[in-house]
Task: structure prediction
Amino acid sequence: MSDFSVIGKPIAMIDAAGKTTGAGKYADDFSLPGMLVGKILHSPYPHARIVSIDTSRAKAVDGVVAVVTGADAPNPYGILPVGHDETALAVEKVRYVGDHVACVAAVTEEIAERAIELIDIEYEPLPAYFDPVESMKAETDLIHENRPHNVEKDYHHVFGDLDKGFADADYVAEGRYIANEVTHAAMEPHCTLANFELDPYTGTLGRLTVWSSTQVPYYLQHKLSLVLEMPMSQIRVIKPLVGGGFGGKSEIIPLEIIAAVTARAAKAPVKITYTREEVFWAHRGRPRTIIDLKTGVKNDGRITAVACKVIQDGGAYCSYGVVTILYSGALLGALYDIPHIRYDGYRVLTNKPACGAMRGHGTVNVRFAFESQMDEISATLKLDPAEVRRVNLLKPPTVTVNGLRVLSYGLPECIDQVVTRSGWKERRGKLPKGRGLGIACSHYVSGAANSIIRSDMPHSTVNIKIDRDGGVVVYTGASEIGQGSDTMTAQVVAEVLGCELARVRVIAADTDLTPIDLGSYSSRVTFMAGNAALRAAEDVKKNIVSAAAKRMNCAPEEVIMRNDHVYKRGVVAGTDDTSAAEILEEKDAARGHVDGQILRGSVLQTRKEESPKEHMSFEEAVVSAIDFHGALTGTGSYAPPMAARGGKHKGGGVGPSPAYSYSAQVADVSVDEETGEVTVHKIWAAHDCGRALNPVAVEGQVIGSVWMGLGQALEEEMIWKDGLLMNPGLLEYRSPSSAESPDIECIIVESIDPEGPFGAKEAGEGSLAATIPAISNAIYDAVGVRLRESPFTPERVLSALRAKQGMKRIEMTESVDPTAPLTFREHGGSLWFRGKGPARHPLDPARQGAQAGSVVGGKQ
Amino acid sequence: MSLPSFQLLRPKTLDEAVALMAKHGGEVKIVAGGTDLLPSMKQKLFTPPYVLDLGGVRELRGIRNLPGDGIEIGALTTLSTVEHSALVRKDYPVLYQAVKTVASPVLRNMGTIGGNVCLDTRCLWYNQSLLWRKSCGFCLKKDGDLCHVAPGGKFCWAAFSGDTPPALLCLGAELEIAGPNGLRCTPLSEFYVNDGMVRLHLAANEIVTRVFLPEASAGWRGSYQKLRVRGSIDYPLAGVAVALKMKSGRVENARVAITALNPAPFLVKDADAHLVGAVPSEEIAERIGELAARTAKPLTTSALTPEYRREMVRVFAKRAVMAAAN
Result:
């Protein structure tokens, strides 16, 4: 048993009460006196030049205070330094249906909505690109002029000797896999409230304060500074409660800057909350991905080489795209031992909303392909798929062929656990017709070892202040977005200081108060902010210990801080430190001594000092330390070690992490062979999170990941028709409901990472990727059809079943069979919209056959 | 999205409601549970000057037993109330089965049987925001002059997507409708128009007030099978209701109806000819499936391909017959 008081215990989130009672405040719950409502006008065209904008009619509406357009904030920005290709509002061009064009600030939402309809814009439609392969052929009318052939970025990596690898293989599998586009669908729509201080005499604009639903307050502060041309010190970003991010709030979303720009123009606070449709347009989700995968294996399943080509349909802006396409290749490594790897990745621009980071960033779709192909190989070579994974395990500590350092590695135990618990050996192959089991594995980084903006600054810093009242205040820039980062921080600090969790108050993500932290993305918070919190707590603890040692006449090493007591080692003879604290607590209770007020603590102390001290309360120790040292503060920071920062090759900065989490899953599904409907009965999910700092939070994250993977596997898909999103709402974009959510058995595996805080690694993302292939592999086990395109909707499953039975083919979905012609559909997914008739709009380029330069525009 | 401005009318009695409808006629939309109308108003599909809230008309609430004549369900009765009525569950099981599949429990607490019967037809090109519809050039059903689903035609294919009407059709339900000239009754089977825009035989100044289920169909066994992607919340992508009057193992009378496949819910013609007098079997059930599939004209108005949905009508009708029989 581990000897901890707070760590490793299932603890309710410290912000749970506010969230569950409704008292908690999210961005949209804030308002300020004189606040205006902002409404954004979006482009109805997928690709068009803006010939003119006339806002005069909108400005004339009673109740409208300001109307802003691209000209009011023309500075480009983007989350990546290589991708500064966005402006808050369109300048010259719109690039997708839903692109942001203008914003009205008015006294009510209704007036603002009416006013945006009165903004007159003349557009000149341009040929638009909806399919990545078609888009790559473009010579003219490029989406961004500096991106030839609409390719945002392509990478071509070779590690090892590929020819040798394939020559060594006894069997080579090849296949094309397609994962259609999905989005985060976080519960809380994005919201930003922006307010400038006004000089009361001159009306000059002063400091800017922004309350925003963001995962990255520091990056937001940075980009606001860039666009508004204000020093960062003049901008304060506050992150209130956030109702889920999943990556959709891990970069700067247009409304965050638009709110500030509009507030500047209106000289009044402006709040903008996206409608659900606008959230879909803001998107930044997982791109539709086409994966051509080739794996060579020995007869026992050992992998000799992997060649992988990935095309991502990235949408109209770079966003995190360069990182996404790099993760797709880099994380081919670090799960299994692969001696030779070739990776060709293409991130392509199209006239659709920008894709970005989404839970399991870059790894999920490739993992679906990889784990599916491993299952195909197992079937062909008549091997047990679980065994095939076992023969390919890494032998850590090791550095993979593509430069990823792996220390802790709980994958073998994860596989053992799910194989045992699911009855894999006993049940597989003996299930009734239409029912089957499938296995798959996945992994993810515990924070990127290299920051987005290259610098030598720490990735996380945490400050702690303790006052005479014994209250511990922790200041961290890490963003609580529902994943439990505040609770984790409090736990780490309470454990180190040996105080009760209730003493710890976490002030997080307020750029005026909290030290810089890169934010909540790439599963970095527990590892990095956790380590920083640990170091900060140790820093402040030093001072408490030295003061206590003086009072107790002992060496600092003899001072134990635990369970709100500070005492000399061995103070209760013959007992360990765990029970010593308990005995002292009883003694204190018998003495009738009540820990309490700040000043009284001091008085009590002087009186008690007559006799030599052997133990004191946490508060007494704090008071002694403050009396002795003056202020009681501590600070700690974390930067990943150089050894974990990866190879030197181009693009080698993405993928390396100080530690990787591991997951293995078994899915138990049945397939209705008449309807193609798939029912998932149960998923066993084992996750190696290093150490579970808070097991109930880990389980929540694993179950959430599995559930989100289930959505992508079976139901979720963004459907496009000529750049128009056909399902921009939660009714038609179908995330699973509780009714079809399976039983999920979460098994926590603790590999105790040597560098993680108390051995912890990430828990929030790594499990997602295994769920999709576990389900597709189970479908194969159940009915013998291989689904190479996600989601596995009933129509796809049924048409695969019919094809297998040699029945008359129903034109339900296009095949992704590699022998089929290489046509990519203009939109992802099933053929809901094979409308052959008139295209959408009289002014639509597709309908007009418009050529570049022919002005077909008109007033909206 | 905000609701467009309107004047709210809140009658306390049916007479008041009828008088207000007579006065404001085509300028008023009726709201009961609001689950269908309010999202559409936010999307600016409707911007009526007046909204008449029937909520205060208490006489239209509740289920009444009419001994010897069947039962009467007030139009304002919530779907939850219908779902939890022992009377409905015992005597009209097909309605019980259908009503419990509507949307989700929360929505059933708000939505009413009258609203479900009068549900607006749905289409992916129609149930969208103003900007969305603007960017596709609008459609026949609202603000536009072309249909994206069946191009070239001047006919709206938006699908009727209520779950309870096929069940009610199987039970031979009648509607009571109040208008300026008093009350009228109409069989439900004559209430719908197979045109996504016209939808209903209901004048602009009329209100659906009650649903009657005849004594003659009490005790018929029934089943409702609904195609949807999720286990909850979703509208039907296809729905089949089957009601069978059974006597010593043989079918004495039968009706089959489908929904969410055409602009109106339909009784499947000649289904009874195959069923009456027979002992239900897989073979007969498959024949009913064929008939139902022939009645269905699914188009690309909702998720899943029309081809798949037509296939599923066949399967679901077969399953519904077998489930109702056993």
